[in-house]
Amino acid sequence: MKTLDKLIARSGNQCELCESKENLSVYDVPPSASNLADREILACEKCLNQIEKREELDANHWQCLSTSMWNENVPVQVVSWRMLNRFRNESWAADLLDMIYLDDDALEWAKQTGDHEGDGSIDLHKDSNGNILVAGDTVTLIKDLDVKGSTLNAKIGTAVRNIRLVHDNTEQIEGKIDGQMIVILTKYVKKQS
Known about the structure:
Elements: H1 3-11, E1 24-28, E2 40-44, H2 45-51, H3 65-68, H4 74-86, H5 91-99, H6 104-111, E3 139-141, E4 145-146, E5 153-154, E6 159-160, E7 164-165, E8 172-177, E9 180-185, E10 189-191
Antiparallel strand pairs: 1-2, 3-6, 3-10, 4-5, 7-8, 8-9
Helix pairs in contact: 4-6
GO molecular function, one term: hydrolase activity
InterPro entries: PhnaA_N_proteobac (IPR013991), YjdM_C (IPR013988)
Keywords: Hydrolase
């Protein structure tokens, strides 16, 4: 039986975290471990985007953890524990963390991503209007920019296609203007829809 078919049967064709029935896909719970046969869960797009830190956390959405943390499947328990730790500064999550039980192997697996450390906040690349930028987006300059080390002057309204994100700095993106790859501050761009 294929993994997707097995997960659909196990979950009743719904997200194993929030019970949504839309936009479901298989999520391989990291890190991959050869000693674990079942590492996957069936999750909706909203859960996946927040698990993988591609979207800001929505505390109201994750109230579902009060149910999913009791799931008999270890990968669901592990993801529930990790997400509760991202919200541990909120009273509801702290209460649930006090109640959740993971055996020693599951707890060790859950801790491997480091979600229990730090405050759980996510830094995302955002344009001047607060819209989240992702690699491959097209943006428009909202200000004339002089490119340092070049005679290039990028004019307001210039479209920059297929941007790249600077991974260690959420205030910068990379893009080509007149065939030259440059670094652009996100506060000077607007995402095109």
